[in-house]
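Figure 2 data, in text form.
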Amino acid sequence: VVACDFYNAGGLMSLSEEDIAKILTDELLPSSVSKFADAKLVDSWVGKYGGVVSWFSPGSFTRRPPLEGAGNDILPNVKCAGDWVRMGEREHGAKGLCQERAFVSGFEAANSLMRVSADGFKEHEVLPVREDEWQFKLGVEINREVMKFL
């Protein structure tokens, strides 16, 4: 199973689903990982969504919907998932918009839903993000100091 997203992909919108799958399997994937050249496409699905970019402004984090939706006391079976949600105590990794965050929030939303609706379920484990390396922390601090003067 392989999932691929293409950003700024207006040039692909006019292509058929078959053409996109062919470009992916014949050119893009094998150029990244040579073993993909031996893979056989069994099934595919292509979703094309023109003009559906999320536009969040700096500082909008606090106004994004929470993972728990309206809350367990109000709508216990409604959860939010995606890179745009606030995960509260389950916050994971970058607070920006990214696929990894969207993926993890899906697991967290499912776990949350199951906690309020199913007895004896086994929560899907979400591995914690490792601490940033020292050189990254140093770069962040240098950037913070430089930005004070700009």
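Caption note: The two ends are 46 Å apart (CA to CA).
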